[in-house]
């Protein structure tokens, strides 16, 4: 008979093995699924996971997708460490794209060297504003952060759609819901000649290291860790939950906003309705896959970016619907949570039935 | 004790249990006769819990035999233990507050047992009268006091016709009067032939009620004795070896200027089963220990939380430190003004279980260790290792996780950390609860030394002996009311015991002047 037994203490091995196990189980699930719809599992996995890294162009595209995923995931890791259940990275990303793009359009005839920094800053401030509202509602009225941040994702999305249909629409754009192309002065420089890799990935990696530094070296980061590990101890020590909540939420908002504005001033070059294919949501999975560690998020974001790339390639090369990416993400989160269950629990095998 | 009965109730031979890195029980042999009240003594970590868990079928021993009523048995689960007639009352009760007494008891009975008993409520009432337990089967558990709940737990064992009752520190939560009541019940049970295994840290209780005692140290039986021919001091010596100096006579002090005030503090309960604080007034002087006695759940937790600031409701005018209102400040700001706390829960509140001792030093002691917002881990490491050495905290070093320490050692660490901040006012709850004799002595001396340096100490404890030992002035709480404050020399255990039961409450409202006595 198999029983589930609580472990006397959490398994530290399982904490690290869990994401790997979850990925393996997701791939096995994928193989079964691909066989069921009559595609070769081996080919499908090759296209999904290997092909994205097969040539320099694809690797470049992978980094383009990794940037926003990592920026959002780093912020979320900090939030989740402090028990702030921010599901609003998507909305904060869109708000950053919207606010920053409005600034970029203001600079459309400018050649000032300050145009780009100001545009990026505008994006970050917009993202912060978007995370500030649910934070205020939570701290003032004790509203549920999960619900309000999800609602603000939709508000941001429809605000952005309204903007590209209205005030920010390109007057010469034949009525398409898009802004004008941004001026060169507000475009993020690319890192290599033949690739679309831009400064966004640099921002992302720097932000991961900054977050790591804050968590491990600063008193503020220490307080965040205590809050996440043991809330009664944090209250006993007199750490201000308000201050910490504001810090992690504004930090996450700023990074998500930067992710948004880096998309529109980077690979896209204008404000369009579909800025993000759900980066803000995928970042939740990335944060957990990276064990809520900012540096772990780097590897996890890379994996997730490969999956995004692979989804595109699978559609082009094998006619597999692109929805397979969302499904893989969902299955991955499912297996990850299932595997995490075994950090605190274990299976006990016994021959005799006990009462 | 029925001396003519020669078959022992329980005999343990060579019980051995090895945990990773720790030999919890080392060839333990022990015999219990029917009707015998047997004390199991030892410091924390001596192996008492492991041994009783082995008897109750929670822990499987690596080696050794258990002989029950002359027959060898294998107790692999608590239900087998219960079928044999072994009952256990744990230190922390396992009752559902929202169910009645009778429903709670029904939950742990098998269908066969229920059929045999028939009308459970009737049986409970019958047993209650027979043993003077005073347990009403229809009452809801949340409406019962701690003492009553304990009697429900004992009733739970009696209903199953218990032949061996194991009690883990049963008196730590009771008033002196309730303790007397419990001892009455235990004596009746013993006369009827029920054996009792009694774990306690309170040695005078052991000498009062137990027929025999087995003393464990480091997992081994080091001694057995007949408690009523020993003194608490001589038993303590057996428990800890030679280093115990159980000296009852510490010098009492007067205290100088008043430093901390609680004025007219009334506060509704925050939680459904919490206690409402009723017009609490107290002044704490520099250089004194003020002890507050009381049975758990009479407002101590609420008082502690509002004083520390963990309860963040604004009581600006009700608390003052050095004539400065502090009731509106949050916990961190109060710490900066010179307040420190030792909470009841060591692990999970006083220390973060998964963090190292270094990190747990920083938890409340950041002064001098944070520069420009960055933590100076090197200095903390040095400070922590000095702290560990000074208070003789047994651990692998400053990188040990808090949860790897035993309760007493963690308490010494927390105590040292709080004292190390040179607080003006230290609020200390149950400082030696569940701590072994050696550590308790170290903690007492640390508190007295802090007092003699001029700090004011508010000591909240359920251990009335400890309060008499340490406190310069005393009071008791009952149902959210605070009794008058009196000098320890001018009161006695009876008066404090009556105050713990609330006899002062009516007087207080009739003669408010008396509060200043």
UniProtKB/TrEMBL annotation, chain A:
One of its GO terms (cellular component) is plasma membrane. It is a multi-pass membrane protein. One of its GO terms (molecular function) is transmembrane transporter activity. The chain crosses the membrane at residues 12-37, 57-79, 91-108, 114-133, 145-164, 197-215, 244-261, 281-308, 320-343. It is found in: Cell inner membrane. Pfam families: BPD_transp_2. Keywords: Cell membrane, Membrane, Transmembrane, Transmembrane helix. InterPro entries: ABC_transp_permease. The keyword Electron transport does not apply. This is Nucleoside ABC transporter membrane protein. It comes from Marinomonas rhizomae.
Automatic annotation (TrEMBL), chain B:
Pfam families: ABC_tran (PF00005). Residues 10-243, 260-504 form the ABC transporter domain. The keyword Cytoplasm does not apply. Keywords: ATP-binding, Nucleotide-binding. SUPFAM superfamilies: P-loop containing nucleoside triphosphate hydrolases (SSF52540). It comes from the Bacteria. PROSITE patterns: ABC_TRANSPORTER_1, ABC_TRANSPORTER_2. One of its GO terms (molecular function) is ATP binding. InterPro entries: AAA+_ATPase, ABC_carbohydrate_import_ATPase, ABC_transporter-like_ATP-bd, ABC_transporter-like_CS, P-loop_NTPase. The keyword Cell membrane does not apply. CDD domains: ABC_Carb_Monos_I, ABC_Carb_Monos_II. This is Nucleoside ABC transporter ATP-binding protein.
């Amino acid at each position: 008979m198999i029983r589930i037994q609580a472990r006397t203490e959490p398994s530290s091995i399982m904490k690290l093995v869990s994401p790997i196990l979850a990925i393996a189980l997701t791939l096995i699930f994928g193989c079964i699924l691909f066989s069921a719809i009559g595609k070769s599992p081996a080919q499908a996995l090759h296209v999904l996971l290997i092909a994205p890294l097969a040539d320099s162009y694809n690797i470049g595209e992978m980094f383009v997708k990794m940037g926003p995923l990592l920026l959002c995931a780093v912020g979320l890791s900090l939030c989740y460490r402090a028990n702030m259940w921010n599901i609003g990275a998507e909305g904060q990303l869109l708000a950053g794209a919207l606010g920053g793009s409005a600034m970029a359009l203001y600079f459309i005839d400018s050649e000032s060297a300050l145009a780009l920094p100001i545009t990026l800053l505008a994006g970050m401030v917009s993202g912060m504003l978007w995370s500030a509202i649910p934070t205020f509602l939570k701290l003032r009225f004790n509203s549920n952060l999960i619900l309000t941040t999800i609602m603000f994702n939709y508000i941001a999305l429809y605000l952005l759609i309204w903007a590209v249909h209205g005030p920010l629409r390109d007057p010469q754009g034949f009525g398409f819901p898009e802004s004008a192309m941004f001026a060169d002065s507000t475009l993020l420089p690319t890192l290599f000649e033949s690739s679309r890799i831009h400064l966004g990935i640099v921002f992302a990696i720097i932000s991961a290291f900054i977050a790591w530094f804050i968590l491990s070296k600063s008193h503020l980061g220490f307080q965040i860790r205590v809050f996440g590990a043991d809330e009664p101890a944090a209250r006993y020590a007199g750490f201000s939950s308000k201050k910490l909540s504001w810090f992690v939420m504004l930090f996450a908002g700023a990074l998500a906003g930067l992710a948004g504005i880096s998309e529109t001033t980077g690979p896209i070059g204008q404000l369009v309705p579909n800025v993000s294919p759900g980066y803000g949501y995928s970042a939740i999975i990335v944060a957990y896959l990276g064990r809520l560690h900012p540096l772990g998020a780097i590897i996890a974001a890379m994996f997730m970016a490969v999956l995004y790339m692979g989804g595109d390639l699978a559609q082009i090369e094998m006619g597999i619907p692109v929805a397979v990416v969302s499904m893989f993400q969902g299955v991955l989160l499912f297996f990850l949570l299932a595997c995490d269950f075994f950090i605190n629990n274990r299976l006990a095998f016994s021959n005799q039935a006990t009462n | 004790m029925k001396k003519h009965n020669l078959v022992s109730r329980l005999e343990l031979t060579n019980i051995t249990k090895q945990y990773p890195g720790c030999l919890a029980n080392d060839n333990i042999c022990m015999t219990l006769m029917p009707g015998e009240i047997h004390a199991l003594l030892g410091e924390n970590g001596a192996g008492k819990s492991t041994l009783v868990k082995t008897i109750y079928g929670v822990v499987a021993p690596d080696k050794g035999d258990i002989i029950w009523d002359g027959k060898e048995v294998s107790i692999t689960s608590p239900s087998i233990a219960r079928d044999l007639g072994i009952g256990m009352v744990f230190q922390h009760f396992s009752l559902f507050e929202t169910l009645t007494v009778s429903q709670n008891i029904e939950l742990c009975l098998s269908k066969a047992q229920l059929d045999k008993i028939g009308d459970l409520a009737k049986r409970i009432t019958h047993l209650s009268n027979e043993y003077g337990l005073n347990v009403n089967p229809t009452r809801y558990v949340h409406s019962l006091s701690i003492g009553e709940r304990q009697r429900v737990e004992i009733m739970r064992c009696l209903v199953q016709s218990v032949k061996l009752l194991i009690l883990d520190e049963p008196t730590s939560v009771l008033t002196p009067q309730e303790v007397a009541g419990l001892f009455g019940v235990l004596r009746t049970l013993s006369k009827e032939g029920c054996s009792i295994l009694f774990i306690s840290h309170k040695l005078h209780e052991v000498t009062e009620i137990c027929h025999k005692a087995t003393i464990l140290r480091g997992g081994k039986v080091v001694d057995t004795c007949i408690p009523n021919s020993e003194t608490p001091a001589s038993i303590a010596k057996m428990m800890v070896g030679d280093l115990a100096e159980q000296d009852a006579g510490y010098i009492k002090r007067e205290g100088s200027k008043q430093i901390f005030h609680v004025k007219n503090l009334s506060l509704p309960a925050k939680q459904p089963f919490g206690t409402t604080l009723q017009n609490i007034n107290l002044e704490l002087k520099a250089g004194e220990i003020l002890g507050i006695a009381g049975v758990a759940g009479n407002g101590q937790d609420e008082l502690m939380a509002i004083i520390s600031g963990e309860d963040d409701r604004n009581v600006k005018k009700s608390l003052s430190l050095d004539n400065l209102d502090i009731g509106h400040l949050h916990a961190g700001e109060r710490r900066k003004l010179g307040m420190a706390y030792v909470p009841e829960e060591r692990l999970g509140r006083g220390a973060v279980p998964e963090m190292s001792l270094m990190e747990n030093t920083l938890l409340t002691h950041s002064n001098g260790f944070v520069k420009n917002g960055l933590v100076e881990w090197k200095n903390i490491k040095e400070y922590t290792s000095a702290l560990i050495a000074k208070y003789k905290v047994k651990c692998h070093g400053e990188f040990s996780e808090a949860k790897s320490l035993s309760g007493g050692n963690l308490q010494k660490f927390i105590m040292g950390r709080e004292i190390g901040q040179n607080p003006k006012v230290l609020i200390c709850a149950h400082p030696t609860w569940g701590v072994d004799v050696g550590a308790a002595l170290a903690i007492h001396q640390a508190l007295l030394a802090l007092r003699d340096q001029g700090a004011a100490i508010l000591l909240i404890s359920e251990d009335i002996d400890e309060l008499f030992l340490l406190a310069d002035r005393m009071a008791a709480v009952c149902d959210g009311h605070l009794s008058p404050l009196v000098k320890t020399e001018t009161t006695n255990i009876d008066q404090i015991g009556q105050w713990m039961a609330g006899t002062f409450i009516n007087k207080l409202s009739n003669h408010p002047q008396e509060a200043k006595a």
